[in-house]
Amino acid sequence: PWAHFKMAPPDPIIGLNEAYNSDDFPDKVNVGVGAYRCDQGMPFVLPVVMEAEKAIIAEEMDHEYSGIAGCPDFVNLALKFVYGDDCAALQEGRIAGVQTLSGTGGLRVFGETLATFGHKHIYVPDPTWGNHIPIFKNAGLEVRKYRYYDNDSCSLDFSNLIDDMRAMPEGSCILLHACAHNPTGMDPTVDQWKEISNVAMEKNLLPFFDSAYQGFASGDARKDAAAVRMFVEDGHNIAVVQSFSKNFGLYGQRIGALSVVAADPEEAKRVLSQLKVHIRPSYSNPPRHGARIVTKILSDPEKTNDFVHQCMGMAKRIDGMRYELRQALEDLGSGRSWDHVTSQIGMFAYSGLTKDQVVALREKHHIYCTLDGRISMAGVTSNNVEYIARAIHDVTGG
Ligand code: PMP
């Protein structure tokens, strides 16, 4: 029955790992997938996560199913983490929240929910994280783009962003990256967020925040949630997807949350019931381990403090590598400006390399990044930064 199945192309991001793994060049570099590496190039488990795991094992917990909406303690803590303890909507009990299969799972559940309730399309920034497009398509939505980034000036294309928002049909859902926009590393300023919020209000748009890097953008989790909090204060009934993959380093544990701000507690209950209707036939209920880890940490002020410092440590290492990469390119006498490498934030450098240059980087220098020229700064280390700079210098023609 499978004879007519054609070979599907490898995933544009995850497929890079496969290509990297089968390359036997000793100095090969993987700067494709956005997964943090320590300066020795190894995966990093936050010490506070290790402690939490030990405590969980010592408690000899059972492995019963969680509820459809996941672990309530985790959900409450996740919501406080993004909305803030003092968020009025949270205190009033009008935010519906569920645990999700990390950010990806939350995006899909909300996409499906939107489609069920009459949304035909969703707007995403151009460019955006590659997986946003198939996630929302598979959820049954037409994916439309709004202008976000100006390639020539390597900066936010703000006036076109606003023009595109004004042209959106009333009631449209607009996906916004809460911080550390992937792939461009370019976020709106506080004033620009305010204007986005105002236009969204005028046009009655539904802002949907994807928060995959809280703590990674500025090193300060509170600051990285500023846009989300501003929109709630401005009176938007937003939706938010949170991922704990990057900030807690829990990639493979698939831990995240989806929340929806409603008009009142009764509406929040109805929304929650509909989210559960989508989850139950999809994966029934989410896994427990990641939720337990995050709960252990965020329910304890001392552990939370340790987390903040360790997350900041990752953000700082990445930032240091931005400066080293830029400096190395300048020292090589590159004729181009590499200022954007240090002005961008978060996990990625949106390098401006063309597709051909990316292919040359891969074929000639065994350096793997996505075809849009996005380089995961989390994979750049003291050992490989010079090598990467030389290779970039070579493929960009010096
Ligand atoms: N949104 C954005 C913008 C991302 O960059 C990522 C991870 N690359 C995700 C969502 C989802 O990741 P995960 O499913 O691991 O939480």
From TrEMBL:
Q: Which UniProt keywords apply?
A: Aminotransferase, Pyridoxal phosphate, Transferase
InterPro entries, from UniProt?
A: Aminotransferase_I/II_large, Asp_trans, NHTrfase_class1_PyrdxlP-BS, PyrdxlP-dep_Trfase, PyrdxlP-dep_Trfase_major, PyrdxlP-dep_Trfase_small
The record's catalysed reaction(s) read: L-aspartate + 2-oxoglutarate = oxaloacetate + L-glutamate
Pfam families in the cross-refs: Aminotran_1_2 (PF00155)
Source domain of life is Eukaryota
For activity, the cofactor(s) needed are: pyridoxal 5'-phosphate
Q: What is its EC number?
A: 2.6.1.1
- Domain Aminotransferase class I/classII large, which positions? 27-392
GO molecular function terms noted in the UniProt entry: L-aspartate:2-oxoglutarate aminotransferase activity
Q: How does it assemble?
A: Homodimer.
Note on file? In eukaryotes there are cytoplasmic, mitochondrial and chloroplastic isozymes.
Q: Which family, according to the similarity comment?
A: Belongs to the class-I pyridoxal-phosphate-dependent aminotransferase family.
Q: Identify this protein by name.
A: Aspartate aminotransferase
Q: What is the protein's species of origin?
A: Stephanodiscus triporus
